[in-house]
Amino acid sequence: MIVAAPIRHIVIVGGGTAGWMAAALLSNVLPPDRLRLTLVESPDIGTVGVGEATIPPIQFFNRAVGIDEAEFMRATEGTFKLGIAFQDWVRPGHRYMHPFGQPGQAIKGVSFHAWWLRLRAAGYTVPLSDFWLAEKLADEGRFDTPSSDARSPKSTLAYAYHFDAGLYAAYLRTIAEPRGVMRVEATVAEVVLDPNDGTVSHLILTDGRRIDGDYFIDCTGFRALLIGQALGRPYEDWSHWLPANRAVAVPSARTRDPVPFTTATARSAGWQWRINLRHRTGNGYVYVADHIDDDQAAATLLANLDGQALSDPRFLRFTTGRRTQSRYKNVLAVGLSSGFLEPLESTSIHFIQHALIKFAATFPLSKDDPLSANLYNRMIGEELEQVRDFLILHYHANQRVGDPFWDRMRHMDVPDSLAEKMALFRARGCAIFPSQTLFQEPNWLAVLLGQEVEPDSYDPLADAGDLSDIRQGFDATRQIIAQTARAAPLHMDYLSRLIAPGNRRGAA
Ligand SMILES: Cc1cc2nc3c(=O)[nH]c(=O)nc-3n(C[C@H](O)[C@H](O)[C@H](O)COP(=O)(O)OP(=O)(O)OC[C@H]3O[C@@H](n4cnc5c(N)ncnc54)[C@H](O)[C@@H]3O)c2cc1C
């Protein structure tokens, strides 16, 4: 058996959300007596500075880091998120929500929505959203946490956060540094490769210092200093399916109590986000440069704020896609250096945590461990392709006829993997698909139905039983959901109690 030299020193390059998430997690899960962590961040190169909405798995990450939820919400100006409201996506005036959690609970092992489809085919007009507690809470500006009692309607809940990503990174720094992470404030001028094996040997900083390491985590954002510039790993461009390549962002003054959901409003060349934090509202227009110029995009954004702009609009450019090998030799790319899917379903911060957790699960045996790297790259690739398909669905299944950008999206060829999912849903209302890791049946269901992809039939197992009994059960469930929602605290009341000075909640 060959015993390879183990990893003793990991160097994280970049101090944005990805860099500090890496430092906070790895300093908690890797043995400190055997492994050193250094983080290099440039005082001259800024962070992306947007990224305010998350999805429920972030609670798992915060737990793994050992974060107290009350302290975290105080530190990041956070609010709760129960889902995303999609305004005007199907056609102007149309609205639906992608709520977290699930609608109702499976009956006799058959998905709740299959019974609902059967009832609907028999003339039942109550929308599925009436059985989705997260959506009912969001509609009423209320919030509650999930119950671990499977009999409670609250067991169907799930939630995430909105927060100020800059404050989150700063907060994670206060956790990582006391755990021994060494922070170096400097700009990397050169990445030097070992001529023998092509691994990264060391970094040269602009002040002449040298930083050696066994393993390097590239968190340098879109620059991709190590994985792209030094190691030349190619970038797979997905913009033929997801053509948005620009964003303009501006914070605005808070004008009312924050709502517990993100709003995504379709616009002529893309869509606009609105995210309510406690100290301000985050806004941005994600758009396709072929269909609108920067000035028009900024004017559209500024005309659609619900409070006074707090700064000049900030422009960002990106190409949707991924690095097929985001782990190669002794480099792991995390965050924007590894790829970018636009923020429609708030997945980027999730991809950071997913990358770190999978990295820890396939921790390299030595500097160059291609077997573990291949496994890692395959796992990350599958998750990204799933999410890519999910995002394309939002754009493709539209009825905004006569709007050039939306016509283009409706008529484009979608990946075979998405075409198959849509065909399955149309044929039998099925939203359970292979490799469904992040977005699962309820998520696909919400967006497929929301975008008016209509099933012709439903799971034949839902044909069991008497229709009037099923209807009675549904009516009773609907009432319980409505009562549970009405009894829940208002979002802001819940938040105010949580963030009261000195209050602690324990790991999220
Ligand atoms: C328009 C838009 C909206 C978004 N919205 C969301 C959202 O709602 N939810 C979500 O989850 N995500 C969102 N994201 C993504 C999210 O912002 C990023 O995933 C996240 O901020 C991680 O960025 P990063 O740390 O990889 O890169 P960056 O923030 O760009 O950080 C790069 C770091 O690398 C350092 N660096 C670069 N070069 C060098 C060098 N030579 N030497 C030393 N240091 C260097 C910089 O100083 C900086 O610290 C959005 C992104 C965009 C573009």
Model description:
The protein is an alpha+beta fold. The protein has 3 domains: about 10-50 and about 165-240 and about 320-370, FAD/NAD(P)-binding domain (3-Layer(bba) Sandwich); about 105-155 and about 385-490, no CATH class; about 245-315, no CATH class. It contains 15 helices and 21 strands. The protein has helices spanning about 15-30, 60-65, 70-75, 110-120, 135-140, 165-175, 225-230, 295-305, 350-360, 370-395, 405-410, 415-430, 440-450, 465-485, 490-500; strands spanning about 10-15, 35-40, 80, 85, 95-100, 160, 180-185, 190-195, 200-205, 210, 215-220, 235, 245-250, 260-265, 270-275, 280-285, 315, 320-325, 325-330, 330-335, 340. It has a 7-stranded mixed beta sheet with strand order 5-4-14-15-16-13-17. The chain has a 6-stranded mixed beta sheet with strand order 7-2-1-11-20-19. A 3-stranded antiparallel beta sheet has the order 8-9-10. Helix 1 packs parallel to helix 9 (about 350-360), helix 5 crosses helix 14 (about 465-485) and helix 9 (about 350-360) runs antiparallel to helix 10. The chain is globular. The two termini are about 45 Å apart. The model has no long low-confidence stretch (mean pLDDT about 95). It binds flavin-adenine dinucleotide.
